Amino acid sequence: MLNITPSHTQTAKPKRATQDAQASPFLSCRGLCFSANSNVLIKDISLNFSAHGMSAIMGFNGAGKSLLLRLLHGVIQPDSGTVLWDNTPVTHDNRKRQSMVFQKPVLLRRSVLDNLLFVLKSRGSNDPNIAFSLLEKVGLENVSSRAARLLSGGEQQRLALARGLATKPEILFLDEATSSLDPTSIAIIENILHEECLKGTKVIFASHDIGQIKRLASEVIFINHGRISEQTGAASFFTKPETRIAQTYLDGGLPVI
Amino acid sequence: MNDMTDSLWTALTHIVTFNPDLVEIVLLSLRVSLSATLLSCLIGLIIGATIAVSRFSGRSLVIIVMNSLMGLPPVVVGLFVYLNLSRSGPFGWLGFLYTPTAMIIAQTILITPIVAALSRQILEDIYEEYREQFESLSLTKSMRTGAILWDGRYSLITVALAGFGRSNAEVGAVIIVGGNIEHLTRVMTTAIALETSKGNLQMAMALGLVLLCISLSINILVSSLRLTATRLGYA
pTM for this one? Predict the structure, then answer.
């Protein structure tokens, strides 16, 4: 049975005790812009994230959720603007303390166990016990020797999450990581995210699943046509969204083009 | 027709009885081709993998040149190696001309572009698939290269076998730099050319059959590898 309460009600301790979310944001971006093929996809986005809880990024398809996550994680570079983490730009080196789980997991052409060992080795660890404990955590301990690409969609996503956790991230980004998964797989992943959040990992995820966002998120960022429509607490977002477009989204309406 | 049947029968007899001359030629052919394939893989895979994970100006031009070199005429390669290894050439002092080493060098030059170009394409496809994940994991270039080489191993074995097939069937370069010297540099292809011109069709057919069997075995091996890799989920 699921036992998940919204994380904004939890007293999660951030991994960095010196972090003062109110005075200095844990993660922030200023004036982020990104365009491709002459289309402006992200328009002057500025955001602050606290070190606590889970932040959900919501919006219609094509609003720029996945792109924003990638920009925040630093796997793609903005045309202009900056992303600061602890007042430092996200670089190749400090990104090692972050992880991202993509919507479509890309698994190596190796066994389940070897997929995890590869990541652990990249962080200087070669302990199979760590890999096995991660597999146990995501319920894949019985398929450790199977080829990762032969796993079901739900199992692959759980392996991708285990791989993300193998780096012991301070920030975990998830891009619609539970879309198209069955309820059991979703429950397993949500439970793990909840645990990680309690341990102090900042979770930022994009999702269309309103129920999931209600269960997990402490704050909601609503994005529309590459702009931030609102950033507010999850409870207030669902009771009284500030913008009409967010209300339309919650009502199941169509976006205004 | 009877001549043809008799020749074929004699050729088969040569094979079944392990005719010493035939065995010597086949073994030398395999030694030269396998050595050249190994060297080509060492050089070609590094080149292919490096280009697959690198982005630099002029990269497209390098790829075009590399792809064009796949069609290097063997006789031109043979001539190039000959000029370099002949007494008056820059590497004449090595004394490699008309030795199996010269043949290995020529075949290596001939098949390295094939290994490099084919492996580059395979590895780049894998890399494009993995790139964002690698970026997220902040992997170094050497880790990325190692990962795609390992994950592309089944396809790369196919590339190596294609290189081996090409070198084993090649005649133009090895006859120039090897000289087709009996008991020294005579390989299957050069021997077939010689025996045919001498009218010794039995030996030529026997060698041809062995060459065909090797080619067939390589194809069966490649197909089996592909099927196995796909079935096991590692392709």
Answer: 0.86
